[in-house]
Design goal:
heterodimer; A: mainly alpha; 13 helices; B: about 300 residues; mainly alpha; two-stranded antiparallel ribbon; 11 helices; about 75% helix
């Protein structure tokens, strides 16, 4: 029973960290319509920044500066936000596809740096001994898991409330206006690019914070944690939850993570050890197909009910085909 | 610095360029960047590999053509593989992309291609496992051709094949009615429709050309390097960078962009080290986006 509670806490902590990434993506995509396929890169930036700032000194690489965990989190948000802002500044004046391709490139380059810049990132072996909040409780896993769950819940809740507030604020309304009808918003004197860069940077900062949280929760990071599969998982979480809704982003994350962890556990029971790598790839195929099916059938997500305002003339065809399906 | 990087760069550049043609055509005619294009490459290569295996099972071991490492089975298999890849692309378009392209936001199709890419790649890993394989394990002796450059017969043959294919596609798109219809579609889809252009057939031709060339590029990688399920995904960033560098919609631009990136990668391998090779595409991409977003031969967006 106690094991079950412990596992439940562990599961929820991981799911909530995913929720935080999804919340960041929801700000970028759901609210602002910015397509980020390199979010694993921003999560990695956060994780590595925080790890560098907080680990004890290590002669083999730059830093560890041994700073408090909170400083690590703030540093992660800052670096992640700046990286996202730079990406946005370079591409947001261009077609939306260019942002997609560039973010994809960011993820590739971050992965490359994580693997090869040994002096900075520890290379393929990653960084260990990352201080964990309530590390003193590690002897009693249950207490440790529960206290970490409390921290992660608190951060996620804070991010949720802040984002809800932002969404309803004048700032959020400008973003929505830009997404729905860019020309009208610009004619009201709003600089589309400036607002989008802001939204992209804030989203990037949230993703980086999630990366830092996860690094401190596990205590160890390596380049393999931030492959494109992570990007893909978070996209599925957002789409399932319904892009545009912060509550949906959290619900979608928990649900998809439950499916993911559940099917992972199932394959480890059903398949012989030597077949498990294969079974795991089948799991990814299933999720990929699921994403495509949701996009085809319910592009606004399973929980997403936000009706898109139909503009006269331009979208009649799209609406007709939507109602037909 | 030895001049060997020129040969390496031209070869890598050919692979990138052939792939980038498909990317640039999909982008300019179907109006979305296809993240599954790299996986067409991998699927084409594995299909070719499977056909080579089937031929070996039927006819026994076939001796390779004199100086090359491969014989007629690979050539036949390449044609079959290219046809298979084209069918795969058409099938995906039918069940997925054609429907997503109709939706109000073009970016939904990009997202769909991202999901499809993940599914296709993992399916390959499921069927063939992620262990690398090869068309042939024979080692070729590289011939010196002066200036400290060495080249193998395979490499020469593949460079000639690339040149022929690029020329063929260029002639097809500039000198035939189909090609003119494709240009019309990329310049103004609405007007093209009014002018009576068969949109469905243009879409089909676009997929077939892009997928077939992706297959050839993948087989080149298979012959010269190795075959892995991730081989196409790893080519995605260089291909996008090449297509944008050359200017979206321009086939000569895509090939030139591929060659530039290939040469830059080979140069970087010598100067900085092989592990940083993938960063070259990203640096090039960012430079183009900042300095000249329409690329070398691009035209302003309409």
């Amino acid at each position: 029973m106690i094991d079950l509670v412990g596992y439940g806490a562990f599961f929820l902590t991981t799911a909530l960290i995913f929720s935080l990434v999804t919340l960041g993506l929801n700000l970028q995509w759901g609210l602002t319509g910015l397509f980020n396929v390199g979010l694993a890169g921003f999560v990695a930036i956060g994780a590595y920044t925080s790890a560098l700032l907080t680990t004890p000194d290590d002669p083999a690489r730059l830093g560890g500066f041994g700073l408090p965990i909170l400083i690590g989190w703030l540093g992660a948000m800052f670096v992640g936000g700046v990286a996202a802002a730079l990406t946005g500044i370079a591409t947001l004046r261009l077609r939306s596809d260019y942002l997609a391709i560039t973010t994809f490139g960011v993820a590739v380059v971050v992965q490359l740096v994580a693997l090869n810049a040994q002096k900075l990132t520890g290379g393929p072996f990653g960084i260990g001994f990352i201080p964990r909040p309530f590390g003193g409780l590690a002897e009693t896993p249950l207490l440790f898991n529960l206290s970490n769950l409390a921290i992660v819940s608190a951060v996620t809740l804070a991010a949720y409330l802040a984002l809800e507030h932002l969404t309803r604020s004048p700032w959020g309304r400008v973003l929505k206006a830009l997404r729905e009808d860019e020309r009208a918003a610009i004619s009201l004197g709003k600089s589309a690019r400036f607002y989008r860069v802001q939204a992209f940077a804030v989203g990037g900062a949230i993703m980086a914070l999630a990366g830092a949280l996860q690094a401190h929760f596990i205590g160890f990071i390596a380049p393999d944690n931030y492959l494109s599969i992570l990007t893909f998982q978070v996209w599925v979480m957002l789409i399932v939850g319904g892009s545009g809704s912060n509550a949906g982003a959290i619900a979608g994350s928990v649900l998809v993570w439950a499916i993911w962890a559940g099917s992972g556990a199932l394959t480890s029971v059903l398949f012989a050890p030597e077949q498990q790598a294969r079974a795991a790839s089948l799991q990814i195929v299933a999720i990929g197909v699921m994403l495509c099916v949701i996009l085809l059938v319910r592009p606004n997500g399973i929980f997403g009910e936000r009706p898109r305002r139909v503009r006269f003339g331009k979208r009649t065809k799209a609406t007709a085909s939507e109602s037909g399906s | 610095m030895s001049l060997q990087f020129v040969v390496d760069g031209l070869l890598t550049g050919s692979m990138i360029g052939l792939g980038a043609i498909g990317v640039t055509l999909t982008y300019s005619i179907l109006r979305f960047s296809n993240f599954a294009h790299g996986d067409f490459m991998a699927w084409g290569t594995y299909a070719t590999l499977a056909v080579v295996g089937a031929i070996a099972a039927m006819f026994g071991k076939v001796a390779p053509i004199a100086p090359l490492s491969f014989g007629w089975p690979l050539i036949v298999a390449l044609v079959v593989g290219a046809a298979f890849t084209a069918l795969l692309a058409l099938l995906l378009d039918k069940v997925l992309f054609s429907r997503l392209r109709k939706q109000e936001q073009a970016i939904i199709a990009v997202m769909g291609s991202f999901g499809a890419s993940m599914a296709l790649r993992s399916l390959l890993e499921f069927i063939f496992t992620s262990r690398p394989t090869y068309f042939s394990r024979a080692i070729q002796i590289a011939m010196p051709v002066g200036f400290g450059i060495r080249i193998t017969p395979d490499q020469i043959a593949l460079l000639i094949l690339t040149a022929a294919l690029v020329l063929g596609v260029h002639v097809l798109t500039t000198r035939t009615q189909t090609g003119r219809s494709m240009q019309a579609m990329s310049q103004n889809p609405a007007l093209a429709r009014i002018a009576g252009i068969d949109v469905a057939s243009v879409v089909r031709v676009t997929w077939v050309i892009g997928a077939a060339l992706a297959c050839v590029a993948g087989v080149m990688i298979g012959v010269l390097v190795q075959i892995r399920p991730l081989m196409g995904f790893d080519m995605l960033l260089p291909m996008f960078a090449a297509a944008i560098l050359g200017g979206i919609g321009s086939i000569p631009g895509a090939v030139l962009g591929g060659l530039i990136i290939g040469l830059a990668e080979a140069g970087a391998v010598q100067l900085i080290g092989a592990e940083w090779r993938a960063a070259v595409s990203f640096v090039t991409l960012m430079a183009v986006l900042v300095v000249r977003p329409i690329g070398l031969f691009g035209v302003r967006e309409r």
